[in-house]
Structure formats: structure tokens, C-alpha cells
């Protein structure tokens, strides 16, 4: 899992939180922008691959997207993908799935929230919700379930509980899975959902082989993505399972890890001198 020169990928996918973005400091390392610009100058396509929806991107990430001209945005763990502000494809939950999920967690007195492509709608609020969403600075709207009316697509549901608060694994429909992203919260998704599914469809449309793609990530929702791409790079500050699944371990996100590893792999322009120690 050490870094050594590899063939330059045709496209690289970047997770946001604890990868590109230092959420505790509400910023991106100064070395990231010039590193990504160097990749663009070498003809590499750049993409975001995140569990966030478009409406809850941090301001620093929005600025990075605009300034670097990041090509593709894969959001909501692969459920909504866009290019230059326009939807390419999406995978919303079915109405029946939504009602089954919400009904189950309601019987357990567990707070939930629905995610559209750009909003988070909290159906109830508890300390777990405040803690989990607060850790990412995510704003939400408190609504009644009837107020959503599901007239707009819902891509995933958030459920706010600790493992110790349920007697057993959630008894959800066979078509549904959960992925924990915080001690107090899980993503609730269609079983076939993942960043990898969206990446697979995107690469097929671009006629790019998976071996010519690389991805940076740090957590459990990156595992399928790591299995699919040719070069999987986990942040050293990441979840142990993500580091175990990766081909390469990158230095910490708050220690200029992305720029350092891109330099070590030989993927930046030779004259690049912005990598800090």
C-alpha cells in the first residue's frame, strides 16, 4: 500500500469530508487547488463523489468546484450525478420504499430525515440528529411527512441512532441497506446504491476503463468505489476498513496529504512546486 509512480489516470474521484475538506477547520488545504489545477492541465477529468447532496456542499468546496472547473458531481452516495449544472442520471428511492423505511423507524422512535437532490427534510429531531448533522454543519428543514408529499424525488433517508439503541439489525425490506457515517447516524439507501454504481455508469458513457480511474476517500461509503476503480487511495485519517480496502494510504487530509500523494505518484506536472512539507 505504498505510493510509487503509476500511470496517470484519465479521471479521479474525490470524496469531500475528511478527504478534500477539513470539516473541523471549515477549509480545504491550500495545496489542494493548485494540485487539482495541475491535474486538469495534464488532461485528467476531475469528479466529486460524496454522500452530501448539492444543497449542503461546504462553501469552500463550491468555490473549489468553480475555480478548478471540476467536471462531474456524484452526490448522495451515487444517487444523483450532474455535469455542468445539469443532471446526467439519478436513482431515486421508490415511494413504497420511502414509506416502509419511515414507518419502521417511527415505530422505534428514531428520528429520520429525507434527502432530495439539494435539501434535507427532518421529520423529527433528537440529540443524535443534532450531533450528526452538526458535525458536518448541515442545515435542515423540520417538516411534517405530509408536507413533503414526495412530489420531488427522494434519494436517501437518514436515520439517527447509535448501534446500542437498537436491539438488532434494522428490520428493513430486503431492497434496503444502511451504511453508518457517524456514531449517531446511518444512510438508508436502496440495496443497489453506491458511489460505484454511478461511477460505473459515468465511465461507460465516457468510454473509460475502470483501471484508468482513481478515487480518494476515507469512510465506509467509499468501499464499493475502492473495489471498482483501478487505484483506490484512502486517507490516513480514514476508517480502518477504508484503509484496508485501499491500494494506497495517503497522508492525512490536514497534512497536505492529497497534494503529497499526487506528487509521489508522478501525476502532477514536473514543475509543480506547491507541495508543502
Largest sheet: 8 strands, mixed
What is the string of helix and strand elements? EHEHEEEHEEHEHEEEHEHEHEH
User: What is the total tally of β strands?
Assistant: 14
Helix content: 25-40%
CATH superfamily of the largest domain: HAD superfamily/HAD-like
User: Can you tell me the residue ranges where pLDDT is under 50 for at least 5 consecutive residues?
Assistant: none
> Looking at CATH, which topology of the largest domain would you report?
Rossmann fold
Proper CATH architecture of the largest domain: 3-Layer(aba) Sandwich
N-to-C terminal Cα separation, in Å?
Answer: 21 Å
> Strand arrangement, largest sheet?
5-4-3-2-1-12-13-14
Shape, principal axes of CA atoms: globular
Mean pLDDT: 92
Beta percentage is 15-25%
Radius of gyration: 19 Å
What structural category do the secondary elements indicate?
alpha/beta
Number of helical regions: 9
